[in-house]
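Suppose a classmate hands you a notebook page containing two proteins, each written out with its sequence and a corresponding row of structure tokens. How would you begin to make sense of it? This section walks through that situation. The first entry is reproduced here exactly as it would appear on such a page.
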Amino acid sequence: MNTEVPVTPVAESRDSAQTHDAHTATAPAPTASSGEPRAPRPLGVLVGFDGSANATAALRWAAREAQLRHLPLTVTSSFTIAPAVSGYLESFPDPQGQTLARKATEAVLEDAKKLLSGYSGDVTYRLEHGDAAGVMVRLSGSAELCVVGSRGRGGFTGRILGSVAAALPAHSHSPTVVVPHTKGSPAAADPETPSAAGSRPVVVGIDGSPHSRTAAVEAARTAMSHGTSLQLLMALPPLTTAALWYPELAAREQAMAHSRMDDLNRDLDVEVGWIQAQFPELSVSGSVKEGFPVDLLHEMGDQVDLTVVGTRGLSGLRSALLGSVSRELLHHSTVPVMVVPVQD
């Protein structure tokens, strides 16, 4: 069913990696919200569309995601007028709002309808007035999930990863997925084409913080809807570079790294066991790997269906605000990246 809504005003080993399968842990259980029921959000999967190749990939990804989650799909595009022009036009009332900008945006939504012509799910198309990022942030509180392309061409038109795709994950009231457009990517496939989801896992970067556990829960929900497994990743960044300059410190640094690896493996056992307890039907595993979080997650890109991170954490996979890990992944990932907001 297709519905239109009117425009609304702006308002391995010890030395490398170790893999952990789910089992019952004896350490204290983490505290974070899990599978508790949430109030339904009427917009379902909300996707911003501007007609660009990246937005088209995002539209198709969002359409498949809406079907997998049994949610409605909401497609939105926005228009705005530059202040210098707006002041001039306001002196000439236009009750029907038939401005060139609005007509162009209406044409964009018509393109979206054509792309989804064979889509069998429930779709609503929204024409909005306002800045694209601001519109998406405002609507995100009524959506289960927000989806945008990694870049656009104006409007929803995500002016590279500096406007919509960068601003939305940091301010959204729901999880946000940024979809890249790469040749041969599953995101570029037709929404009615059977998805390859299920053949590759969902991976989530965790650090033991409440924020990362929130991300892990959302990753688990997504893996369940995709019919695939979940992998938890903890990173052990290099401690210091002192051993490069003072070789006599190498043995001490190695001992510290081994001790820290043992600590992280114990923490990971707890996290894997906790997630498995919340989602008993889900296949959950985890690993601790040496390296920088962004590098590790990026290297896994061609092996996973989706990468999930929180907006911030503690350290390592601990991106303060939308800074290191989340931002770098959004800039360079070749697979969709989900950023889960903090639930304060």
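The notebook's second entry, a different protein, reads as follows.
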Amino acid sequence: MQGSSPQTLDSAAARGLAPGAIGERLLGRLPVFQILTPLALLASLVLPAFSAAQSEGTDDAASFLGTAPAEGTAPAEGTAPAEGTAPAEGATAAGEGTATVGGEGTAAPGDGASAFLAGQEPDQTPVIAAPEQDPELELVEDPEQPYYLLGVRSHALFVPDFLIQAFGLQMFETVYGWTVGPEFTYRKNGFDIVTSVWWGSYPADTPSREDGDPASETEIIKSTLGLVWFTVDFIAGYDFEPWVALVYGGGFGFGVTTGEVTRTEAYPVGDGWTACDGPGQPRAQIAYCEESGGHYGPIPTKAKGIWPVYPMIHGTLGARFKPLRNLVITPEFGVGIPELFTLGLRVNYMF
């Protein structure tokens, strides 16, 4: 559309047309103005009402959620204050999405999450580690508390030949034996009462004759003797450390005989002695293998020196080791009758 020249406007004025009439005629000829004009009028009426409703709705929602800012509190970052409203004095904007206390970038004390979101290190109060417990304290026993031990005992025994010969038996060799059996201990305040049932073996195979007898009276003594012992021991001690102690004590009991002892006439062969085959056998050794009055078999249990039941009394000295709270190991040395010398070991579980 070509613009109106001054001459045209002047001619229109000459025809008595007012400026408002010129505008109406122009709008009437332009379709676009005919559409936009009503929309502009409608917007001028609706937009103020919509803005007022939106502001009222926001305040209601904040009141309902309980997050309405207190009077004079600055709005969160990115939210502009209402037109004409100044922030409260002393209020500072929080970091991104996080309220702060005590100045910019400082999180509320004790609030680790707020500190993390504010880009600070959370408050990490150092934890004091508990002192390490001395392992030896676990080995210390309560003197007022009873303890019970269950275990096994074993020892080797030996009877030197010179001691046997001192009792009138010539040529008798050293006797070696061994024992084994379970034991139960009641322990309180460092004092043990030990009960045990154990078996001992006392083998022998040696020539012998009594003092004053001629060589023709020499015999071979062979023993498969054994004893089932029932004993009780009383043991005290002195603790050097919770894990080691000196122990000492003694005990008594009795043993029931098992096995047998045999006596057989013997004759010399070289530097040793050999058992006869029987009375008068071999014939070449009849001077030694007597046909009458000789011994060729087991000694009766009622014979001299062979008893069905033997008493026992003995003393012990040793060391008690306790590598673990529930493990007790005791090597010991003993002297007694009828077992003269013993070297033993006791291993127990304490509960």
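A careful reader of the second entry would note: The helical segments are 6-14, 19-29, 31-65, 112-117, 161-165.
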